[in-house]
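Backbones bend. To wit:
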Amino acid sequence: MVRRPRLGRARFGEPMVEFSYPWPQGVKHLYVVSDFTAFFPGRVELRRVGDRGVAQVRVREGTYRYFYVDSYYRPYEDYEVEAREELELWKCKVRASRLEAGLRELREARREGGVHGELILHDESWPSYFSGYGGLRVLRLFTVRGEFDEVYVRALTEDGWKEFSAKRVLRDELRDYFEARVPRPDIKAYLFRLTDGRREYYFGFDGLGDTKPWSPPSLSDDIPWFLGTTYYQVFVDSFYSSRGPLPQLKERPRERLGGDLIGLAQKLDYIRGLGIEAIYLTPIYKAGSYHRYDVIDHLSVDDDLGGLEAFERLVSRAHELGMKVILDLVPHHSSPCAREFVELLHSGEAASSFLSWYRFLEDDLEGLRKIYEGVLKEYITKGCRGSLRPQGLLPPYETFAGVWSMVKLNHENRAVLERFCHIVREWLRRGADGFRVDVAHGLPDSFMRGLYACAQENGERPVIMEIMGLASSYPLGETANLAMNYEAYGAILDFLTGKASACEAARRLSLEYLRLPLGVANAMYNLVGSHDTPRIATLLKDYGLVERAFAIEVYVFGSPSIYYGDEIGMKGGHDPDNRLPMIWDPGLWEKGLQESVASLMRLRASLKPLRIGTFEADCVNPDTLKVVREWGDERVVALVSRRRAHVEEALKELSSAGCKPILSKGLDGPYLDGYLMAMCRGLGA
């Protein structure tokens, strides 16, 4: 069931969806899996009411695919809903139902014509509708397509009531999206004025025709360091060893190769020379596997990486060079060798204080103790090294993706949150500057809110949610101040591979931006590669396109990143071959690519419109994307073509507006086969 919550007398918000499903026999936990959970269980769990499971979740307007899964990732099709489609997920085909949230009434309104005040959106329960920093406030209002020509914000300031124009920055099939950029941080109250070419309307707290204003949220004007910064992601075991370069391999084994933190510290000058301001490290904690996402102890540094002393030396050197250090936090699951799990097994008492730390699927511990004696004991005795894949057995606890060696924690237990808050505080004390949260798309919003609050206790720190899907479906700004931007990654990749036109890519990027608070949008961790994706050079098969991918992630909202080795053209498929050892022989580098990427990163760091400015995207033609960034009286306009394209009119617009090119690659008269960037001061293009 889909409904719009009432926010005022005649004003409604973004959709609220209630899921209901007959509870399957023998199932202990049941989850909704959808686009808005990155197709991963954990964020939305159904609670049992009688013989059904129910859950409510706030979503954005749109079409979503969904199904249900239990603790063993077994899918359940919603047979009570007719609209279905087949998805390829988890290396198998799944039948998903289709849900339309808020679209039916928009289509009906378009057919009817007239004015539909009840469908005007300014939903203050989402922080994206009123946001800002640095003396700028951004207010957004979404209307039914074609119903209004102009929108204005009326704001009460210290100088009385002032009016500011809102610009229509996006139009899609059903909606017009207006954004007002108000250079007044002293707004005490506000409402909207709309015109349709015949008459004007006020839109206030109680809806169309009302003049009762909103009270704005309290916002800081501080601009934190991580807005528009530049990241370099390092898979430490694969990067560099204090004993020298790692062996060059064509295939990566799932074992440790010997990269360490001292070796990384020795290469920080190289990283800084790329224009990088922050390094993000995959887990460095004591763990069993080579990737270390099966954490045994979050407060210790793995001896193979050099221990805590090596971390302290790394942080000291990074800070000396002006770079921040981001650690990878893994609160979704732990290793069976974690102290809490081991003590629980050894005590064998149901009263153990750690029993509720995990999501056990046995009602008593007797069955678990038998499995421990038969399966887990030897594995734990060996320090949780090697493989744990018992044949013919299902784990007696919830896991990450069915992996026995990754035991899911119980995020409803306050003690688990308090433990991770302690971990966060301790690493901040040791010199870390922020955290990336692994599998954050599979954590309840309530847990993320608590973890985020702990990280901000002594100043704003970046908390980067891993969301391998629609980041704009999560309440960013409440649960974290940024996320890994796989949503934009998908749009960039689809554009460059020909799956989407420049117009479609612009629409997707614009819609994501409009659904994020300005501070979150410009903090987003942009990427063209990570340890969870095939190498960008492998995907695009053309270094010219790789360069354009970097150009786009630099031009759009957010903070661009480099996954180690992508800047020199390293190749590799899926895990683990996307984690091959870093190549340190310059003779094997794509030097032109490296120089271009470094130039883009350095330029990005030096230009305020790119770093912290507002964002608009459009298409010049199906093959050419246009991006506009503004801050103060400066405007940067960028064009990126995926193949040779005619851009003469766009060039004339830039010239007539007095915009000066500051970077160009592949421009040949009226044709562009690459990218260019121009700076416009004063009135822009």
